[in-house]
Each structure stands twice: as C-alpha cells, then as structure tokens.
Write a structure and sequence with these properties.
There is one protein chain. The chain has 404 residues and is an alpha/beta fold. The chain is built from 14 helices and 14 strands. The C terminus is likely disordered.
Length: 404
Amino acid sequence: MSFTKLGLSQPLLRAIKEQGYDTPTPVQEQAIPLIIQKRDILAAAQTGTGKTAGFTLPMLQRLSYTRPPMQKKQIRALVLTPTRELAAQVHESVRTYGKHLPYRCTVIFGGVGINPQIATLRKGVDIVIATPGRLLDLASQKAIDFSQLEFLVLDEADRMLDMGFIHDIKRILKMLPTHRQTLLFSATFSPQIKKLAAGMLHNPALVEVARENSTAEQIAQTVHLVDRSRKRELLVKLIKEHDWQQVLVFTRTKHGANRLTKQLEEAGVTAAAIHGNKSQGARTKALAGFKAKEVRVLVATDIAARGLDINDLPHVVNYELPNVAEDYVHRIGRTGRAGKQGEALSLVCVDEYALLRGIEKFMKQKIKKVEIQGFAPNPDIKAEPIQNGSGGGRGRNRRQQKRR
C-alpha cells in the first residue's frame, strides 16, 4: 500500500514524498485511516515502527479540516511525552510533515526558561507537545487554555507510568474537555495501560503491530562476559579495532556516564554524555554532535532509551545492563530501525548475571555469548550487589524526575 491510499491530503502527501517515503509502515497503515475517521486509538507499537508519523500525519489532517479563530492561550491539540528528547522529536515530525499547512506548533518542557513558553502560548497555538511537569507548571499559572482542545495524544504512555507520571496525567486529564479525540500509544498493553485507557478512551480501536516484548529481528545481539574493571578497556578496543564511528553506549547511572565519557576522551575517543542532570542546551548540543558524527560515542542513561531518533545508528552498547528487563528492549531499539540492520553488544560482569537471565526470560530468547580473547572473566571474582544509583531502574527516586 502507498500513502496515497490512506486518505491523506495533498499537502501532507507532498511533504511525505519530499522525505523520500512512499510506503507506510504497518502501524501507519493501520492507525492513519482510523484516526482520520475520528476514532480513539489504543496502539501497541514497538520503538522504531514509525508510530510518530502514524499520529502526526492524521492529527495534522484532522486539524486542517477547520480553522476556528484562536483566542489567546487556547490550543487545539496536545501531545504528552515522557522526556524532552521525545518531545523534541515529535515537534520535528510535526514541522516536517506540516510544512505545507498553516498551523502554529510549540514544544514545552522543563530545563529551559518558562517565560518564552508563556509568551508563545499567549498568542494561541494549534499544537502543543509537552512533558507533564512543565505543562502543569504552565497550567498553574493560567498560561494555557484547554477549552478548545480537540485532540490528545499520549506517546510512550507505558514509559510515563514507569517514570511515575500517573498522578500528573490524571491531573491533566481533569483539565481537558471530555469531548475530544484521544490516542494512546504504548510499547505494550500492560494491565496498567489497559486501566489507564479504560478511563480516557471512548470505544477505542485497537492497533497492535508487534509481538509484545519482542525485539527487532534485524538487531544482532551479543553478550561479552568481562570483569567489571576491564569493561572500559574492552569498549575502547572494540571501538578502535572495528573503527566504529557512531556508538550509543548505555550506563546505569548519571555519574557512571560522566566518568565513562571522561575515560573515553582520555583514550582518544571523542565522546559526550546525555542524562537528566545535563542542561537542555548541553543535551541538545551532545545529540547534535553525535548525529553529525562529530562525536564518536554518545554515553546515555535510560532517560535516552526512548525519544532518541538517530538515522542509521549502527551500534548500541550496554556498558551496564539495566535493572529493568524491559529497558533493555528500548535501549537496543535505538538501532535496527526502519528495516535497517543494527548491532547491540552487552558487556556483562559477574554482578549482572542475574540481570542477564531476567532479560533473556523477558524476551523468551537466549542472547549469544562471545568471549573476546584476553578478556575472559576471572572465575575467582565473586558477584557484588548492584547499587541502584541515580538514572538507573525502577528503584530510582521518581519525584526527582517529575519536572523534566
């Protein structure tokens, strides 16, 4: 099927063609016609399936049907995302596909000044993409008017629940008109997601395009068993010997990301870190340098596991395994996107064997173990408890993340 069969308008088809696309992904093929028909949607779509365009395109089309006069502070569509990076990605998608349509769009999140955001909203905006914490800050200052809202999207809803945003989401829902079209996108249909959907969706159409908890078949996954003290040495060896030019490396903590970035730089490998303690400017600069291949290695915590959209990213390395098995799937999903081949390596020490078994059980598959000559783990080293530091798994302090 081509995009021309989905009922999209000519301005949108023109923008799609300019991006070089002609065939929709499965989630786009299923969701776009339903959204255009004004149906509420509950969609399970794994990362990298094209779901952002799957709701951006029909949202733009629905909003272009009518152009009501906008009063100050009013908005017509709201997209909620868990992280700044994902909000920026959705904003870029709206700008890309809406370039031939008249509309006003803005993105709002924490970590940057609130006054310019208030000034933008004061003029009236068609589409707002926001993280929950900053949106509530603006609402408390009466800087935004939801009375004319027609369209609501919850993107990565499961991630928002995992990050502790459920109470923020409920507060926001109470402010919105009940007569609206609502789309909920999630990686899985967990019991919590089904409960959330039951309270906010009206007779939703179900869209499911990937087996729950599956990982992309085009990602080659490998585990290298190695002592914790030699992980950095092995990582540098792999990067240099294989001449990797673009590698996304995940650590468990923010401190660990900073430390590894410094060690890579000292070893002659250009690197930058991206995590919650970095300013928005620093995060944007690091990501831009990585996308432009000016920075060879981007070291990230799980805040970046969703929301980073990097074309043709060839390598993802788990320098440390995540405490939550599902986060492994989202990490490696940064590569192998849109049908491309990708490689995901995990450097696993004895402390992490239990985490590795949990990941394999979660995915219902074994991951290939490859021993690197000279880096076999010392059998005399015993496992130590893993400390769940800032930026790690479910045990982290959720309240500290509220104002992303």
